[in-house]
Amino acid sequence: MNILVVRNDKLGDFITALPTLYVLKHRNPANRIIALVAPLNRKLAQSCDFIDEVIVDEGEDILGLAFQIKKANIDASVTLFSNTRVALAQWIARIPIRIAPATKIAQIFYNRRVVQRRSEVKMAEFEYNLQLAGALFKDISRDFPKPLLKFTDERYALFCAEYGISKPVVAFHPGFGGSSDANWTLSEYMQLVSIATENETVDIVMTFGPDEEKLYDEAKSLLRESRVILYRSQGSIIDFAALLSRFKLFVSTSTGTYHLASASGCETFTFFGDSKFASAARWKSIGEEAKQHHFMIPLDARGRAQMFEHVKRELKSFLLKGF
Questions:
Q1: What's the CA gap between 172 and 85, in Å, rounded?
Q2: CB of 150 within 8 A of CB of 40?
Q3: Domain 2-133 shares a fold with domain 154-321
Q4: Pairing between strand 2-6 and 76-79?
Q5: Predicted confidence (pLDDT) per residue in 270-321, tens digit
Q6: Fewer CB within a 10 Å sphere, N or C end of the chain?
Q7: HSE-up of 97 (CA within 13 Å, CB side)?
Q8: 3-state DSSP percent of the chain in helix, strand and coil, to 5
Q9: What pTM does this model have?
């Protein structure tokens, strides 16, 4: 069976789709799993051995997207997040079985609709995605390995050689690309970095995305500790994930890099907005839960300050345990 799985939005959203892709493939290895993804996620999708084919949504018109889908000879589709364009393209491509949440006007173009009130946050995003796989195969197992993303040591070895790293790495990622509802300021991150520098058993890295040059320059101007490495991401998402898979701790807001780190096996300290929609209950990652440490940042100044003190204490305690 040729099965299309649609999740053509941001990095973190796509990572929440990976368990669904995995269980559909492993229910029957003869299934051909095709992923429809955003350009950003092309290489990550292509690196997954449980995805057989990748269709990249370049934003073409509905007929162009329908033509791409039609060429893949799809028997069934599972659309994890829908809009009218994606729904109509699948209808035009005449996919026999079209599964999606029963939300928005787009649902009229699907012939198997699943009622999901995701705003109620009864499950995490990735669990809602897995529920949709059950609409195709009622007997499907929803179990998947953790970490789901696995990488070899070569990229990390080059990174260590280039930056003189010889100890376990604690990494801080102050940026968020506008996809998170809550984060600390750069000066607050510097306070957390300062706590880490007190521990001589670790190397400290601050990471920055390719579009965060300004943030990188600001961090460099604020930095007072010479042994902190400032690293601007180079290469593809796969290259960065290979590094994350070997880091011991990744400290960030709840953005795509957090999902990438957790899915790659790294322990995480993660900051979430203080609302049901933005909470860890909805956006926890697909990684091992015991290795995810979640902190909700209150909106009010007093609550925010108290939470920051709590994070500092937790970070100190975590580092004292060693690796």
A1: 38
A2: no
A3: yes
A4: parallel
A5: 999 988 888 999 999 999 999 999 999 999 999 999 999 999 999 999 999 9
A6: C
A7: 14
A8: 40, 20, 40
A9: 0.94
The class (CATH top level) of 2-133 is: alpha beta
Question: Which residues are CB-contacts of 140 (< 8 A; sequence separation ≥ 6)?
Answer: 23, 24, 27, 133, 134
Sign of torsion over alpha carbons 34, 39, 42, 45: negative
Token readout for 287 is 């990684």
Instruction: Give the class (CATH, top level) of 154-321.
Output: alpha beta
| Domains of the chain, residue spans | 2-133, 154-321
Residues 96 and 111: their CA atoms lie apart, in Å, by 9
With beta carbons less than 8 A apart as the criterion, state whether 15 and 259 touch: yes
CA distance 275 to 219: 29
**If you ran DSSP here, which 8-state letter would residue 39 be given?**
G
CB-count burial class (<10 Å; 0-12, 13-18, 19+) for 118: middle
Render pLDDT for 217-253 as a digit per residue (tens, 0 to 9): 999 998 877 789 999 988 899 999 999 999 999 999 9
Q: Which two tokens stand for residue 83?
A: 């809009």
Task: Judge contact between 50 and 71, C-beta under 8 A.
Answer: no
DSSP per-residue letters across 45-75: HHH-TT--EEEE-----HHHHHHHHHHT--S
Angle (CA) 52-64-178 rounded to 5° is 75
**Sign of the alpha-carbon dihedral angle for 59, 255, 289, 46:** positive
Cα angle 88, 286, 233 (rounded to 5 degrees) comes to 90
